[in-house]
Specification:
- The chain has one domain (about 5-125).
- About 45% of the residues lie in helices and about 15% in strands.
- It has helices at about 5, 15-25, 80-110, 115-120, 130-145; strands at about 30-35, 40-45, 50-55.
Amino acid sequence: MRTNYVRGASVSCSASQAEIRDMLIASGAHGVRFVSVQGNAGITFSSADRRFRLVLPLPAPTPGTPDPDHGPPRPESSASESKAVQDAARHRWRQLSLLIRAKLDAVDAGIVTFDEEFLAYVVMPGGGTVFQASAPGIAAAYVKTTGGVTP
């Protein structure tokens, strides 16, 4: 029988964040912080001599629902709308926890290195991530070599 815990429905956002923090610290990361900006949550941390940032898009509240930081409901909120936004946020945090666990398990198994698995999330000196810096060049290379058709 599957329980809500297995599906992640009853795991709070803060419990998933604590799990993420514990996993990262156990892997040697330090300075783990959780932030919330413009409808997105984020995790920043350092490992070795690099900084990392993962962004988690949170569900967009509709009028009458709490903001992504779980603030007080706006006027005209219904309990079902509020619960739906909170459930979606819990689910996303739980999924991110599972993703990070899988990445760290692959590192522990020697399948990949920490830098290989988290490369896209490395924060460059200008503040953007490796993914943000490389994505336009990759897209342009595909357009140039394939005429815009993805192989």
